[in-house]
């Protein structure tokens, strides 16, 4: 039985109080092109068996990442996730736990988040980390808002090496908040252009390393230029495993570090859910979005955990909230923490080295393929190449041959005019046989 508590008269009275004539008037800010005028193009009703058959048929059309050679990256990476990770997160006390409003009955959840924060702070080289955000892209947008509050300046410079999805997430939130964005042209190596774009109005500079083209950059010079202008440096990382091999953002002078944590403990999951990592300098702690767990002692001197800082709108008055984030991707953060605990520092370093070794072999194979120009010189496990043909067409052709050859840059930024650029990633799951199949298939397609 459907539960419809409001009568037409109730609705009419509510609309009258608000001062609008109809429900549709509440959606005037949504562009007309994004609104439906009719019902969704789906059957109005069907039996359970029929629905199951239809959905099974649709699911069968998907090709999983593990079904053959797979070279997709561009912000989401296929890594091995130990079976113990899934086993632990499916325990009921973790799987069904809710927001830890009452510390006296949420010590387990709070301790997990405290350990997670400790790991993120260690990885990023910064003093304080929060209890996670939704994902890397929304975390980047939150970082720009945080920098705006701290510096009270109105412009964010976005590097040409920043993932286009992150750019659009930042631009969406910045536009609503009245923060200007200076989005630089796409560039495989964007360091010089970023430094040139910094001026006295700059609140923050957002750079990514390794960037969307795979280029690894020591951003120390950018940090110095930003600080000289009174701006903050935000460093974005989409491949968290790279922390095991590269300099941390904190070492390079970052004020805020944002990362996508999917690579550790979380599968690709056809696009989500993922988990955003967020860390900053201690002096900016009170402007950090979301929640922060802390360690304390109880009345009897026993170790305990609490929400030390809760600046989201569900905890404090909305006008004083630093963010309206409603959760912290707790289960994904737990998976991250479990996998990191299993790896340890040395394990992460070995995993990162293995990823880079795989990428070296991939680059060598691509460089030896006629017609392929390798664009990325300094890389971790991702490489951009230029093809003599449209990259999206090549990917579609190779998919038909059972090889998922990567992500065309045009799929991320159709307007960039880089239709011949292909992004390819290699991880510890990429075998020599996979690379050989890619090279053989790519050679054949280019020669056609």
Query: What is the CATH topology assignment of the largest domain?
Result: Aspartate Aminotransferase, domain 2
Average of pLDDT: 94
CATH class of the largest domain: Alpha Beta
* Tally of strands: 13
CATH H-level superfamily of the largest domain: Type I PLP-dependent aspartate aminotransferase-like (Major domain)
Report the end-to-end length measured between terminal Cα atoms.
Answer: 61 Å
How does the overall form come out from the CA principal axes? globular
CATH second-level architecture of the largest domain: 3-Layer(aba) Sandwich
Number of discrete helical segments: 13
Rg for CA atoms: 24 Å
Largest sheet, if any?
7 strands, mixed
Tell me the β content. 5-15%
Physical arrangement of strands within the biggest beta sheet: 1-7-6-5-4-2-3
Low-confidence stretches: none
Task: Give helix % range.
Answer: 25-40%
Order of helices and strands: HHHHHEHEHEHEHEEEEEHEEHEHEH
Q: Please, how many domains?
A: 2
Structural class: alpha/beta
